[in-house]
Design brief:
Distance between the termini: 67 Å
CATH architecture: 3-Layer(aba) Sandwich
Shape: elongated
Strand order of the largest sheet: 1-5-4-2-3
Number of helices: 4
Mean pLDDT: 84
CATH topology: Glutaredoxin
CATH superfamily: Glutaredoxin
Helix content: 40-55%
Low-confidence stretches: none
Strand content: 15-25%
Number of strands: 5
Largest sheet: 5 strands, mixed
Structural class: alpha+beta
């Protein structure tokens, strides 16, 4: 193989890798509306009761470097709002839950309503403002529904 061809191949691989990385990073922390009808049962996830208005269910693992910061942010957010709870589920020894809730990365956060219905999903560490906005929207929807 000659040198110019090898350089073109390396440049193409580098450009492809950068493009895939940028697309992946762009999706981190983004919120998705969930219409699947999935529900969260506190007994299944072995956590406390759901909040009266909403619950932030965080899926973490022992090796997740970003999970402790997200945990602090979500716990503070839930503590500042009446009727909102934060539940942290460690998936390290519960691959069954990771499969059931289709968790492909940690942290993954589900925003569920008072009945346990999953309404929003965050993949990766979300911005506090995004969580607050979605929480406000869910509470408004529940009040009008």
């Amino acid at each position: 193989m000659d040198l110019p061809l090898a350089l073109v191949i390396v440049a193409a691989l580098l450009a492809t890798t950068v493009a895939v990385g940028l697309l992946w990073r762009r999706g981190q922390g983004r919120v998705r509306t969930v219409d699947s009808g999935d529900t969260v049962d506190p007994q299944v996830i072995e956590a406390g009761p759901l909040g009266d208005s909403a619950t932030l269910v965080q899926f973490s693992t022992e090796l997740c470097a970003r999970c402790p910061g997200v945990h602090r942010m979500l716990a503070a957010l839930a503590d500042s709002r009446p009727g909102v709870r934060h539940l942290d589920v460690d998936l390290t020894h519960r691959p069954d839950l990771a499969q059931r809730f289709r968790v492909l990365q940690t942290p993954t956060i589900l925003l569920v309503d008072a009945t346990g219905m999953t309404r929003r999903r965050f993949g990766g560490p979300p911005a506090r403002a995004d969580v607050e906005r979605e929480l406000d929207n869910l509470i408004k929807e529940s009040a009008h529904g």
